[in-house]
Amino acid sequence: MRDFIEKVEKREHLLYDEMVEASRMMFQEDTDLEEIVNFLIGLSKKGETAIEVAALATVMKSFAIKLNEPAGDYMDNCGTGGDGLNSFNISTTSAFVLASAGATIAKHGNRKISSAAGSSDVLEALGIQPSIGPEASIELLKQEGLTFLYAPNVHPKLKRISVARKQIGKPTIFNLVGPLTNPVALKTQYTGINRADFTMEYAEVLRILGRERAIVVCGAGGMDEASLAGKNELVLLDKGDLIPFTITPDEVGLSPAPVTAIRGGDGVANAKIMRRVLQGERSPYFDTVLFNSGIGLFASGIASSIQEGVKIATDTILSGKALEKLEAVIAFNEKSIMQEVLS
C-alpha cells in the first residue's frame, strides 16, 4: 500500500490494475488503518479519475453479498453525498415518488458520514429499520417495487473502511463509488455528484459499468441533487451516448429558491420534512423533490421529458400514492422485524 500512497501523494494517477490492487488491499483485514486513511486522503487531494473510481467500484461490488433478485429493470437514485450543504434527504424522499409512479427502485444508502443525516438515519426515524435481512429486502422489492439496501448489510467488508471514513470526516472516493456498488443489477440510474468538473467522467464510469440509461447531475451551488438555486449541469447516458445539457427550475415550471430554503437537520427533523412533502405541503422542499423525481422519471423512461416527469411526480404526491407507498414500506418493515423476533 505504501507504494500507492506515495504515488497519489505525488499527484500521479493510478492505472486501472494498480487501483484494483490498491482497492483489494484496502479491504484486507491486515492492511494498516492509517495506511487506508492516508491513501484515501492522498486520492482526494490529487483528484480521483474515472479509471480509479471504476476500478474501486468493480472491486467493492465483487465483495458484496449476492441478493438473487429476480430479473427486472431496476433503478437507483442514490447520490454521492458530501456536498456539505446540509439539505434534507432529497433522494430518499424522491424514491417513494419514483416507485409510486412506476419505477422499480433499489436504493443504496448508509448512515451519516459527512452529513447531518444519511438515508438510513431518516428511514430509521420513520420506523424503517436498516437491520432487516437481504431476503426481506428483496421481498419488499417484489411487493412494493422499492427497497432500501443498507450498505453495511450488503457490503460486509465495509466495516474498517467506515472507520477510516469517519476518521477523515470529509468526502472521499467512497462517496463517489457508493452509488456505483449497488448489489442489484441496475439498468438505469439517476445520481448526483458535487463536482461539476467530474460530471462527464462520472457518466463515463456508468457507461463502463454497463448502465443502459442514466443521468448524472451536479446541482447549482455544487449540490449532489438538482437544485432550485439556478443552472444544473447534467449528462444523459443513453445507449452508449453521453449527452451533456443544463436545466433550470423555471424551465420545468418550478420556482427558484436558494439552497438555504431546503436545509435539513438530523434524522428526526428530516423525517418530518419528508412526511410534509409526501402529504403535499407546498414549499421549496416539495419543489425540490418534484424536480429530482421528474429527472428520475425521465431517466427511467417513464416520462418522455423532465417537464412531463415533474407533472407525473406532482400527480403522484397529490393523489396520495407516494404517502401510501411510505406507509406500506413501514408496515412491511414492522412485520419483518416481528417475524425475526419470533423466529
TrEMBL record:
It catalyses: N-(5-phospho-beta-D-ribosyl)anthranilate + diphosphate = 5-phospho-alpha-D-ribose 1-diphosphate + anthranilate. Mg(2+) 2 binds at residues 224-225. 5-phospho-alpha-D-ribose 1-diphosphate binds at residues 79, 82-83, 87, 89-92, 107-115, 119. SUPFAM superfamilies: Nucleoside phosphorylase/phosphoribosyltransferase catalytic domain, Nucleoside phosphorylase/phosphoribosyltransferase N-terminal domain. Anthranilate 1 binds at residues 79, 110. Binds 2 magnesium ions per monomer. The keyword Glycosyltransferase applies. Residues 73-323 form the Glycosyl transferase family domain. It comes from the Bacteria. The keyword rRNA processing does not apply. Mg(2+) 1 binds at residues 91, 225. Keywords: Amino-acid biosynthesis, Aromatic amino acid biosynthesis, Glycosyltransferase, Magnesium, Metal-binding, Transferase, Tryptophan biosynthesis. Residues 2-64 form the Glycosyl transferase family 3 N-terminal domain. Homodimer. This is Anthranilate phosphoribosyltransferase.
